[in-house]
Amino acid sequence: MNTETSQAIRSVSVSVIIPAFNASATLSRAVDSVMLQHMTSIEIIIIDDGSADDTYAKILALASVNPTIVALRMDKNRGVSAARNTGIRAARGEFLAFLDADDIWLEGKLDKQLAAIKCDPAITLVSCNSVFVTEAGEILKEGHRNRPPVEGENAWKTLLVYNFLPTPTVLTYRALVLEIGGFDESLAVAEDLDLWIKLALRGKVRVLHEILIKYFDSNGSLMKRFLGQFPGIWLPLLEKHMQQQQDKLTPAEIRTIKGQQSFQTGCNLYFAGEYLNCIPVFVNAALRGMRPLKSISYIPRALLMSFFSIFRR
């Protein structure tokens, strides 16, 4: 791994971690949104994760005119978790904030989150609302609409059902992330959810309801590329956390959580066009007693939509 930086030695409050893989086209947009925060005690750590395009050249060009940027380069493509962990280890700030190279923050995001996390020492993580948009800027949906957030010391229980913390919304303590071990590099997806659960178990989650993130719908996103495999990764991950915290969960809570997990996963797959993959998940939800009629009703619809999808080809 090669490292280059034009940053002078100075005090850093927030380290912004931006992994970048073949992100030359959107990287400047992301960095510009960080600079809208008008903070002086900030560093922007951009990690080129073995890109095949000119991403690293773009990072160096940005660093040459912006002393807050730290440029890191992976020797090969190792995935977003390894890239973020590399940035976290190099970070000097008390706090970490995460941004993907194709998303943007809105003005005031960091100031508002820093004020929130500093008001209560028990808070381990602060998030905010977001809006999901197309590359053309057309609004698709508000982040909290379908996944209502939960605050406080029991937020981890809701995270066992669904992730209401998109990565670019999170601000947390660097020392705590390092203590936990950072992102699990063995996970192809859901590595962020895994870390959020661990952080939520250490204290309170705080969520700002103001929209402070624009989250872009990208055809090449990790979620879309691994969507068919997602239940096989996500559900065992959550099962592991439930086993570790079983003394904090009642049998009724465990049954409800597992049923909700299956129903939520089925819906995610169905509305993403993964019609055949969603069927066994809805069956599992019905067998667990989670909205059984609703779960079963999706099965013929999924079969019909699958047929139409094949016919359109």
CATH topology of the largest domain: the name is Spore Coat Polysaccharide Biosynthesis Protein SpsA, Chain A
Strand portion, in percent? 15-25%
- Note the total helix count: 13
Instruction: Give the low-pLDDT segments.
Output: 2-9
Q: How many separate structural domains?
A: 2
Major sheet description:
10 strands, mixed
Oligomer: single chain
CATH class of the largest domain: Alpha Beta
Output the radius of gyration: 20 Å
CATH-derived architecture of the largest domain = Alpha-Beta Complex
**H/E order of the elements?**
EEHEHEHEEHEEHHEHHEHHHHH
Percent helix range? 40-55%
CATH evolutionary superfamily of the largest domain: Spore Coat Polysaccharide Biosynthesis Protein SpsA, Chain A
Write down the overall mean pLDDT: 90
Q: Given the C-alpha coordinates, what overall shape results?
A: globular
Briefly note the structural class of the backbone: alpha/beta
Terminus-to-terminus distance: 44 Å
Beta-strand segment tally: 10
